[in-house]
Every structure is written in structure tokens, then in C-alpha cells.
Amino acid sequence: MLVPSGSYGIALALEPAHNGIAAGQNGSLDRGPNIRDGVTRSTRVTEPIAVTACSEAVLPAPRAAVWQFLLDIPRSTRCLPGVHDVEQVDERTYRGTVRFRAGFLPLTFQATVELSELVPPERIRLAARAIDPLTGEEVIASALAELSELEESRTLLRYAFTVENPGLLGGLGRRMLEEVNRRMIQQFLQCIERELVAADKPSSDR
User: Fold this and answer.
1) How far apart are CA 121 and CA 157, in angstroms?
2) Distance (Å, whole) CA 172 – CA 120
3) 111: closest CA among 77, 145, 79?
4) What is the pLDDT of residues 85-118, one digit of tens each?
5) Which domains does the chain have, with CATH numbers?
6) What pTM does this model have?
7) Range 173-178, long-range pairs (CB < 8 A, 24+ positions)
8) Helix (H, G, I), strand (E, B) or coil at 22
9) What is the pLDDT of residues 132-141, one digit of tens each?
10) CA 108/CA 98 separation, integer angstroms
11) Are 162 and 49 in contact (CB under 8 A)?
């Protein structure tokens, strides 16, 4: 079902980590048993847990414009809360800083991001890795965006974001991590819409 511009549908899932985003076998987003409305909690507390948020939104811009925005990694990652100072290392690799507060505990990660899949202008996948500064354990995140062209120069963006949270990050609480993911993906999509609308305005109107 299409989501009107300015509104966002969110689905969350909690599953044992499998070192990747929740997706179908063909690499596309899978809203089947592992991603569904509400939250499914794993009882296997001894394993790292992957927290996945999925959303979709209709953006008031043609698919080519949305694709170019997402492909500009330093620009598009500014829409992710807590992400700072993203710089390009090579054609497919970037580095940046991620800061957020989990309860009373501020956390800062130095992350490496790789463009792991590009299917212009339909699908882009990012894979990020960072070291937990307190435990020394690796934290893995991944994002998958799929773009579908609609009539009237609009684009349906489907987006999924997964964090695999071993060590201290996992111990901070699943509900807290759910909320972090939920807020982040909502703010990300809202920011993209604002940026695209602003870019479409004549310079004299800005």
C-alpha cells in the first residue's frame, strides 16, 4: 500500500543476528515472516540480536533525483541522526563518526561504510562496521533502499535498517534499541523529503 507523502509506515523485527539486513533471497526487502508490523522478540538471549526497522514513503521527486541524493553518501548520511564527518576513502568506502545516547550513556563509534550493492536506479545497499569503544566488540549495521517510480514525478522509497548489537550495546535493552531505530528511520525519511523539496525550489525562493 502506498504511503502518502509526509507519512511513514514503520515495521520492526527482532531476530537472531545473521550478519546482514533482513531481506529476501533475491536481495530485495522481504516483508514476510521476519519483518512484520509490531515486534517479534527472540527468546535466544545468548546470541547477538539484530534489530531491524522497515519503512516506506512516497517522496515528491522523480526517481533519478532520489537516487542521486542517496548516492551522495556524505550528503545523504547527514539525514541520519548522530552521523557526523562522513568522508570518502575510495570509490565504495566511507568513514564517519556516529554519536548517540543510550539512556544516560553517550556512545561514539568510528564507522566504516561500504557501498555493497548498487543497482541504478532501483536499489542501493550499505554495510557499516564499527568497534564498540567500551567492549572492543564489533557492531554491524546495514541499510537497504529500494526505489520505485510513480506517476506525477513521485518515488516510492522502501527502506530497511538493521543493527546487530553484540556486547554492551546489546545489553542496553531491546526496547531502547527499537526506539533508537524507529526514531532514526523516521527522521531520515523526513529529512530526505525536506532536502528534495528544497533542492527543487528556484534559488531565489530559498
Assistant:
1) 11
2) 38
3) 77
4) 999 999 999 999 998 776 677 888 999 999 999 9
5) 9-201 (3.30.530.20)
6) 0.74
7) 173/103, 174/14, 174/41, 174/49, 174/51, 176/102, 176/103, 177/51, 177/102, 178/12, 178/14, 178/39, 178/51, 178/53
8) coil
9) 887 788 889 9
10) 6
11) no
Is residue 40 a contact partner of residue 16, using CB atoms and an 8 Å limit? Answer: no
DSSP E strand stretches across 4-153? 9-16, 49-59, 83-88, 93-102, 105-119, 123-131, 138-150
Q: Distance from CA of residue 76 to its chain's centroid? A: 11
Whether 119 and 71 have beta carbons less than 8 Å apart is answered as no
Residue whose entry in the numeric block shows the C-alpha cell 515486534: 39
- Classified as helix, coil or strand, 133 is coil
Looking at the predicted structure, is the pLDDT value of residue 125 above 50? Answer: yes
pLDDT at residue 172 in the model: 59
Residue corresponding to grid cell 522497515: 54
Who has greater pLDDT, 46 or 68? Answer: 68
Res. 202 pLDDT band, cuts 50 70 90: low
